[in-house]
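Worked Example 4.2. Consider the chain below.
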Amino acid sequence: MTPAARASRPMVLAGGAVLLLALGLVVLMLVRPSSSAPAAVSSTAAPAEASADVGFARDMAVHHQQAVEMSFIVRDRTSDVAVRRLAYDIINTQANQRGMMLGWLEVWGRAKSSPGPPMAWMGHGVTARGDGALMPGMATDAELDALRAAKGRDAEVRFLKLMTAHHRAGADMAQAAAASAGTDEIRNLASGMVLGQQSEIALMADMLKERGATA
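Applying the procedure from the previous section yields the following structure tokens:
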């Protein structure tokens, strides 16, 4: 390469960069909405503090946390393939959903917890009983201790019974949120939860029957 060619190469590269930048600015000007276009309220406005969206996200995050905890417990208390598979499914699904709800609370600028009673957004607050079960369907501290102490079939049956009650209450809460939430995010998530948990309730009923027990 001649000295002249080497000298002109940076200029060519710089010229190409300027051209790409100019083209990018043109594209932005073409696709950017005009200042008179209405803002998308659903994607920018945060739900009110007392809304079903905020209340459900907070309460279901707590509800899900216990479901994940119980699933981890039974995973280590049995070698049954079907129960362990169900536990893994619940861990993965509900941990992911919990993360989504906490993320939305963060985006909305809402605290992760409320000083008020759980489920107040449903029109009735729940008074803590002092046994660890903060909401309907949640296991008590004593029930969790018994699950931790159990092994094999005993652990499986305890887990399936506790998780069935947990899912039933969770599905009821999700159904209420799907009907009353103001954001697409919560309505869609809650509707999916109802279907998913009802399906797992039916599965767990069959698993309990196989073990000579009922919910």
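Residues 3-31 form the longest helix (29 residues). DSSP finds seven helices and no strands in the chain. Compare this with Example 4.1 before moving on.
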